[in-house]
Amino acid sequence: MTHPWRSEISLSLWALFIALWIGWLQESWLVPLWLFIAVLLARHIYFTYRLLAWLRTETNQPPDGNGVWEEIFHRLRLMRRRHQRRKRRLMKMLKRFRQATEALPDATVVLTKEFEIDWFNKAAGRMLGLKPIDLGMRIDNLIRQPMFVSYLHKGNFRHPISISAPHNENIRLEVRIVPFTGNQYLLIAQDVTQIQMLERQRRDFVANVSHELRTPVTVIRGYLENLLDQETSVDPALRPTLTRMEEQLQRLQYLVDDLLYLSRLETTPQGAKPRPVNVGDLLTDICREMESVPEPHASIHLQIDSQAKLLGEKQELRSAFENLITNAVKYTPASGKITVHWFETSHGACLEVSDTGEGIPQQHLARITERFYRVPETENRNPTGTGLGLAIVKHVLNRHEGHLSIKSQLGKGSSFRCYFPDARVIKEPMELEQTTPEA
């Protein structure tokens, strides 16, 4: 194709030459020049009209032209072809996306920024009872459970919620809403009925077994204590064995007690009216109890930087805090230091228990709060314990809308932080400086 501007200039020069020739014949230059300008203007108006007519319909190929208009129409043809190819690719991608979401076992609903239903898959129709006539309706007009409506209106979609299926209360759904494309939302609902049933069976099994173990352990321990008290009737050679048996029974007793307490946390609903708990006094009592331990241990430094109280259950919070401080004492040498720090944050309050102990390898941090999960023991590790302490801490924090953060560096120590939301914190001004008990 000829260069467009070269062709355009050539056409203009030819038109100018003809106009000048006509002017030379007529011995008048003004009329031919105006005629030249009118022809050029009419030509551009003509091609502009054809371009506008094509843009309005865009049913046929762009019109043909000459000069610079030939290049313009050629570029439009190329753009249209690219647009059509891109459109075909997008249609294929959209088709594959819809086929994939249709094949998903989870309910998937696309919502507008006003939470109106834009599209849903077959699983959503089956699990949420949605129908084609529901397109364009607000989702909270169809799923009217108070928990879901409140979850939708709050706009905090960081965590999923569990609700009953709208058409069957025996089916439990875990619902999650994910923002996407800036002004739309993706609602995903998963059937967790079987998972929750298995979890409930597991909790019941652990609770029942722990309860049944409690009686025989108590009886056997009583007999051992009687034997150890009777110094004359027991062979001295057997006394170390009986002492070892009593130690193991004591450990089993701790395990049963922790299992029962953990089961109670999982199965017992939290009280409807949480009470203010003075965390500063509670931590002071715990640290003073640690002072009375006869075995040598690391010094405990208590730092209270806030008089804020927590709305919750005092015994549960005491259990969680005791477990954190006890773990720090167990895994910190006597020459080390433990710091218990209570302070306010921009979003609530926090308890930090840090130590200068041996630390936890990074690969174990993700699972350290699982029940019975323990870091492989080394010579320096304390073999006692049930492996349930941090699991209890995690459950207590969940019941108080808090969360646990763990940072550790091998050989330098660990830091456990319990964050509590602002809704659970009653902030009060500091009255006087908190004394620091040292153990």
Verbal overview:
By secondary structure, the protein is α+β, with helices and mostly antiparallel strands. The protein has four domains: 4-96, no CATH class; 104-191, Beta-Lactamase; 197-267, Signal transduction histidine kinase, dimerisation/phosphotransfer (DHp) domain (Helix Hairpins, Orthogonal Bundle), CATH 1.10.287; 275-426, Heat Shock Protein 90 (2-Layer Sandwich). Helices cover 49% and strands 19% of the residues. The protein is built from eleven helices and 13 strands. The protein has helices spanning 4-26, 30-57, 68-103, 122-128, 146-154, 193-229, 239-267, 279-291, 314-330, 362-365, 389-399, and strands spanning 107-111, 117-120, 161-165, 168-180, 184-191, 275-278, 299-304, 309-312, 337-345, 348-355, 403-409, 413-421, 425-426. The strands form three sheets. The chain has a five-stranded antiparallel sheet, with helices on both faces. The longest helix is centred in the middle third of the chain and has 37 residues, at 193-229.
Features:
439 residues; alpha+beta; Beta-Lactamase; Helix Hairpins; 4 domains; five-stranded antiparallel sheet; five-stranded mixed sheet; disordered C terminus
| Helix run count | 11
- Going by helix content, strand content and strand pairing, the class is alpha+beta
Average pLDDT for all residues: 80
CATH class of the largest domain: Alpha Beta
Poorly predicted runs: 432-439
Q: From N to C, what is the helix and strand string?
A: HHHEEHHEEEHHEHEEHEEHHEEE
Shape: elongated
Q: From the alpha-carbon coordinates, what is the Rg to the nearest angstrom?
A: 39 Å
- Taking strands numbered 1, 2, ... along the chain, how are they ordered across the largest sheet? 2-1-5-4-3
Number of domains: 4
